[in-house]
């Protein structure tokens, strides 16, 4: 085998070419990893929200909460079904009848208005959100025109900051607190008291949009689902899904972004492969005599092929590592996109975890292998006499 130090020495001697090719590869890997981190952040937002023992009751034919409508009397029966978990802190069922509406609000520093989810819920609804906690300000008081939201929504929308006043159908609601919920979809919403939201909307207080309930266990979940499906009387107009099934139907946007992102990564990779190939062709042309000498010394074609491929991979890996490192300062950066199922904005944070960074490194490795293959093959095809004759 050709010693590794031979390849490393050549990369060091041709340091200008090495640096330029690595930086070019790094830029392309960085762009690809940014897309991977965006998709991973979106997936994490929805999967954090998904709990197979949490049930979502909607009106039949409704594919999301905003298009659903459930009578309050029916909602009360749902919250008291056998099999619903009991909150040990309050002794009440872990179930919440909630009203969801969409308001068009302007973003900060922009005249563009986008849809914002306003959710009216009771105190029991807090226990159904993963790791809910107030991080600034305080909890809203029931029966008042107060609201809480997440720091990401506060930063993205006008009049949603702590102490500001948000207009909901002409009714002012003061933002009294900011909360976190493990980065789930709850952080894309503004929460208010359900009765106050009904008054602001001038809608019927005897109806709600959705009922969310936590089943005591898997057996209880299955029993509740079967009861709703088989009921031909009081629950005949309802359907129920566990939260995982519900959010799987909500992530069509991620599938589209993923396809576009991976397509972009492939396109950028092709560019990097040409860059690596160009560098390695130049290396083969300038080191033809070295190749001939190695052949004359007894190194096999396979050893020389592996040597040049190794050099190409190292060249691209340097760029890949630099590209991945360039994305780390953006880890956790909040952004948002449209959820086409709800016609509203969902916030998420870029997530550059080990899996995403490994994808970037693997992409750089593939660039090096594919980009260096043709030049390496050319190098081993040279006969000893041809190699020694070339200048």
Give descriptors for this structure:
two-stranded antiparallel sheet; 391 residues; alpha+beta; 10-stranded mixed sheet
Q: Overview of this structure, please?
A:
Strands 1, 3, 4, 5, 6, 7, 8, 9, 11 and 12 form a ten-stranded mixed β-sheet that branches. The protein has a two-stranded antiparallel ribbon with strand order 2-10. A two-stranded antiparallel sheet has the order 13-14. It folds into two domains: 183 residues, no CATH class; 163 residues, no CATH class. It is elongated and about 95 Å long. It has 391 residues and is α+β, with helices and mostly antiparallel strands.
Question: Which helices and strands occur, and which strands form pairs?
Answer:
Blueprint: H1 4-13, H2 15-49, E1 54-59, E2 70-71, H3 72-79, E3 95-106, E4 113-121, E5 133-137, E6 146-149, H4 151-156, E7 165-168, E8 171-180, E9 189-193, H5 194-201, E10 207-208, E11 210-214, H6 218-230, E12 238-242, H7 243-248, H8 252-286, H9 288-296, H10 301-327, E13 334-339, E14 344-349, H11 354-381, H12 384-389
Parallel strand pairs: 4-9, 6-8
Antiparallel strand pairs: 1-11, 1-12, 2-10, 3-4, 3-11, 5-8, 6-9, 7-8, 13-14
Percentage of β-strand residues? 15-25%
Count of DSSP E strands?
Answer: 14
Basic shape? elongated
Helix content: 40-55%
- SSE string: HHEEHEEEEHEEEHEEHEHHHHEEHH
Report the structural category.
alpha+beta
Average pLDDT metric? 81
Can you tell me the number of structural domains?
A: 2
* Low-pLDDT runs: none
Q: Could you give a short account of the major beta sheet?
A: 10 strands, mixed
Calculate Rg over CA atoms.
Answer: 29 Å
Report the total helices.
Answer: 12
Distance between the termini: 25 Å
């Amino acid at each position: 085998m050709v010693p590794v130090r031979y390849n490393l020495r050549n990369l060091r001697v041709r340091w200008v070419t090495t640096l330029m090719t690595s930086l070019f590869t790094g830029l392309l890997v960085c762009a690809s990893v940014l897309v991977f981190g965006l998709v991973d952040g979106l997936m994490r937002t929805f999967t954090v929200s998904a709990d197979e023992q949490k049930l979502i009751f909607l009106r039949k034919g409704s594919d999301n909460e905003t298009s659903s409508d459930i009578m309050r009397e029916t909602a009360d029966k749902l919250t008291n079904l056998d099999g619903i978990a009991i909150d040990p802190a309050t002794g009440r069922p872990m179930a919440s009848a909630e009203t969801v509406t969409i308001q068009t609000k302007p973003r900060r520093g922009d005249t563009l208005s986008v849809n914002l989810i306003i959710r009216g819920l009771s105190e029991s609804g807090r226990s159904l959100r993963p790791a809910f906690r107030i991080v600034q300000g305080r909890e809203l008081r029931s029966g008042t025109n107060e609201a809480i939201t997440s720091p990401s929504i506060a930063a993205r929308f006008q009049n949603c900051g702590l102490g500001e006043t948000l207009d909901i159908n002409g009714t002012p609601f003061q933002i009294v607190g900011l909360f976190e919920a493990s980065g789930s979809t709850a952080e894309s919403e503004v929460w208010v008291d359900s009765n106050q939201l009904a008054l602001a909307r001038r809608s019927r207080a005897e109806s709600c949009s959705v009922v969310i309930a936590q089943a005591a266990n898997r057996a209880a979940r299955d029993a509740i689902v079967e009861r709703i499906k088989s009921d031909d009387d009081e629950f005949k107009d309802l359907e129920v899904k566990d939260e995982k099934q519900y959010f799987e139907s909500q992530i069509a946007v991620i599938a589209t972004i993923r396809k576009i992102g991976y397509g972009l990564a492939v396109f950028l990779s092709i560019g990097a492969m040409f860059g690596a190939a160009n560098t390695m062709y130049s290396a083969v042309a300038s080191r033809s005599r070295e190749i001939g000498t190695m052949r004359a010394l007894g190194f096999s074609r396979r050893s020389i092929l592996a040597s040049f491929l190794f050099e190409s991979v190292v060249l691209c890996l340097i760029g890949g590592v630099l590209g991945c490192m360039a994305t780390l300062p953006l880890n956790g950066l909040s952004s948002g996109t449209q959820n086409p199922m709800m016609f509203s904005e969902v916030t998420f944070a870029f997530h550059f975890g080990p899996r995403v960074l490994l994808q970037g490194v693997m992409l750089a490795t593939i660039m090096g292998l594919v980009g260096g293959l043709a030049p390496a093959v050319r190098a081993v095809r040279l006969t000893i006499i041809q190699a020694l004759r070339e200048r």
